[in-house]
Amino acid sequence: MGTVKIAITGVGNCASSLVQGLRYYADKSPEDAVGLMHWDLGGYRPQDVQVVAAFDVDLRKVGKDVSEAIFEKPNCTAVFCSQVPKTGVRVRMGRVLDGVSEHMTDYPDDRRFIPSDQQEATAEEVVSALRESGAEVMVNYLPVGSEQATRFYAECALEAGVALVNCIPVFVASDPDFAARFEARGLPVIGDDIKAQLGATITHRMLTDLFRRRGVALERTYQLNTGGNTDFLNMLNRSRLESKKESKTEAVQSVAATRIADENIHVGPSDYVPWQNDNKVCFLRMEGKLFGDVPMNIELRLSVEDSPNSAGVSIDAIRCAKVALDRGLAGPIHAPASYFMKHPPAQKNDDEAYQSTEAFIRGDD
Q: What pTM does this model have?
């Protein structure tokens, strides 16, 4: 069915895992493509996804081929495909706005973004680059808390006629005004805040749903996460965490039998541990009552490489956006959003989200 042409905003660890994955699976067959939820999605395979534009603000990345930029500092994710061929696409200077937190200047150069001394791009320049590249889907990988910057790129996507997959917890697809504008423009939007393949939030959701199905009263729970990548460093600025905490908390609350009191649920990033790099460790505790009001609790420690853990989900979300474009759909694409995102416009439990997404892919919905 051809290619899926994408533009990436933010060439960080998640973009690195995505681009590595596109190459890694290019030589695979459906039988040995471990780690993908879908090999063929609506006629598109992973190798059909093609990066045609990319934007960043780090001087070590701007001007370099995407295949080189993904391995530059401060990226620190696992290298599982070191031989990524040249894409012929150079990373363009984007807009900083609130994309870089002020406290990042307090850390060594290899742990933080170093803003480029190139002149920042205007909206007109970004729109022109999107149109000239032929981009069909924009993938937003900006740092958590980039409210202004995300809205800037979303506006550019609307102007350029490009669909949007919003992988971060800034609310675009779940913002009624933005959702209506994408629909009026005839463009799909899938968001917000990508779920990992098997990460802290999806595990927390599944266990919460299990409590509900088995009649166990969930009374208190926490999810504490530590990591050493730039995202965790960025989130040391707690003022940038409001939407992230809301997104992760509501993802859990939405599948609970009854809503947990605010003082009895804590979900969110907890600390930055530099030597962990892109490894994310989740400490999960759930307390409840069984038959006869007898108390119980469960504790779990989950360790994952953070960025590859979401890349396969992103590939599926990207291809669903392209399928929606092919079918002339516009506005929030609810089925894949409910399955792939923590804060979709409409929450569903994961069984229902899975079934509706499979129906969407088949074209049955």
A: 0.96
